[in-house]
Write a structure and sequence with these properties.
Strand order of the largest sheet: 2-3-1-4
Shape: elongated
Number of strands: 4
Distance between the termini: 23 Å
Number of domains: 2
Order of helices and strands: HHEHEHHEHHEHHHH
Structural class: alpha+beta
Largest sheet: 4 strands, antiparallel
Oligomer: single chain
């Protein structure tokens, strides 16, 4: 601890580089967590919307409703009128209210929303149900959010892969920085090391303080990165405001889970330890 404080400027620089490196990883993991959360929310809703033609007859509508309710994979059916659909849109997209006023009429069709059972949602049975009802007279279109769930999961994996790639480059740079910092510390304590050798100190005794320094720098860097990530998550929505509308939900950051935080700290500590070992093996010939 005394040595870390004595050379605090370069040690602080090293810890800051580590923090920024793992902050990049943390940001992409947070984005991935948010996409996974949205995917799970979509999966929980599991709704198929059957949109009706504007000129549908009462007989055709009754037949569609009966077919949807009779399907074994459907847990619940809800009818959404044109007025209710318009009210939903105005609530979700208030920034587009002027466009609706310019249209002068309600552009939204009525629909039946079928809530599927969980075991049916990701099976081929759901596709058969949709195709059967879609072929009925009076059904104009079908909206099924299973594809969105898969897309969210794919985007989540992509965000995590980008985080690993960019963070890996910076982590590699941090590895060399820690190695050089430990190297400088070894040179600064060269005389002390020579004295320790003369009085019979073992190799482990001489190496251990430098290993602890690298380990401590790694832990400090990861703790700083977690603190910066927390601040970023709190300030990011304030910075965006409402300018992105519905897209803001996709790029929100969700804080890391406990296991991810522990993994980040362990990875950072391991990287600091390996940097120290690399430096000691090359520059401390004992």
């Amino acid at each position: 601890m005394n040595n870390l404080w004595q050379y605090r400027v370069r040690n602080l620089f090293s810890a800051t580089i580590i923090a920024l490196s793992f902050l990049i990883v943390g940001v992409f993991f947070s984005l991935s967590n948010n996409l996974q959360f949205l995917a799970s929310q979509l999966a929980e809703n599991m709704v198929v919307a059957f949109f009706l033609n504007p000129g549908i007859s009462a007989r055709e509508q009754a037949r569609i409703e009966e077919a949807v309710k009779a399907s074994p994979g459907v847990a619940h059916v809800n009818f959404v009128s044109r007025e209710e659909a318009l009210a939903r849109f105005q609530k979700s997209f208030p920034e587009l209210e002027d466009i609706l006023k310019n249209l002068g009429s309600n552009p939204f069709p009525a629909s039946y929303e079928a809530v599927l059972q969980k075991k049916v949602f990701l099976s081929e049975e759901a596709l058969g149900l949709i195709e059967g009802i879609k072929a009925l007279p009076g059904v104009e279109d079908v909206q099924f959010n299973r594809d969105w769930v898969k897309k969210m999961q794919s985007l989540s994996r992509l965000a995590r892969a980008i985080g690993f790639f960019l963070g890996g480059i910076l982590i590699l740079a941090s590895f060399f920085i820690i190695s050089n910092v430990i190297r400088l510390n070894v040179f600064a304590r060269k005389n002390e090391i020579e004295i320790l050798r003369l009085v019979g100190a073992t190799n482990t005794f001489i190496r251990l303080p430098f290993l602890l320094e690298g380990l401590t720098l790694g832990v400090l860097g990861s703790a700083l990165s977690l603190a910066l990530l927390y601040i970023l998550i709190k300030l990011f929505p304030l910075y965006l405001g409402q300018s992105l509308g519905v897209l803001q939900e996709f790029i929100n950051l969700r804080y890391l889970s406990l296991s991810q935080c522990i993994g980040l700290v362990i990875g950072s500590a391991l990287m600091g330890l390996l940097g120290s070992l690399s430096s000691l093996s090359r520059f401390l010939k004992i």
